[in-house]
Amino acid sequence: MPLTPDNKVVLIEQYRHGVRGITLEIPGGLIEAHDTPAAAASRELLEETGYREEELISLGWVHPNPALQGNRCYTFVATNVVLEGSQTLDEKEDIEVVLYPLSEIPGLIIGGAITNSLILAAFYRFYMDYQPLEA
């Protein structure tokens, strides 16, 4: 979950075949054999957006589909991200980078603009563990 110094979230829009439409998500990808989860998060952020973080803070992990798979999905907050270069996408990736104020994220979730369950879990962890909502 990349956050700029002025509290904007760096999100990506990309076409997803399963829903036959464009989704709004945080950057992410697979952990390669030589990666730690944090190294993979940093690499994917840079590749998909061109942004580099000052620090990565773990928000933990979830089982995406424990009925069928034993894998884990790790989530990190990437703080003080700055645009360092251009995207370096795989040949089949078509990703547009968009920034939204952090304050607009709950509305995007409630309004149905963010629907990917792993992204929703990441924002849940963010709001519950990293930056609790004010009572």
Number of helices: 3
CATH level 1 name: Alpha Beta
Structural shape: globular
Estimated structural class: alpha+beta
Strand content: 25-35%
Please identify, by name, the CATH architecture. Alpha-Beta Complex
Run of helices and strands? EEHEEEEEHH
**How many DSSP-defined strands?**
7
Largest sheet: 3 strands, antiparallel
Average pLDDT figure? 94
Q: Superfamily at the CATH H level?
A: Nucleoside Triphosphate Pyrophosphohydrolase
* Helicity level: 10-25%
| Alpha-carbon Rg, integer | 14 Å
**Which residues form runs of ≥5 with pLDDT under 50?**
none
First CA to last CA: what distance?
Answer: 23 Å
User: Remind me, CATH topology?
Assistant: Nucleoside Triphosphate Pyrophosphohydrolase
For the biggest β-sheet, the strand order reads: 2-1-7
Provide keyphrases for this structure:
alpha+beta; Nucleoside Triphosphate Pyrophosphohydrolase; three-stranded antiparallel β-sheet; two-stranded antiparallel ribbon; 7 strands; 24% helix; globular
Short description:
Helices cover 24% and strands 30% of the residues. The protein is of the alpha+beta class.
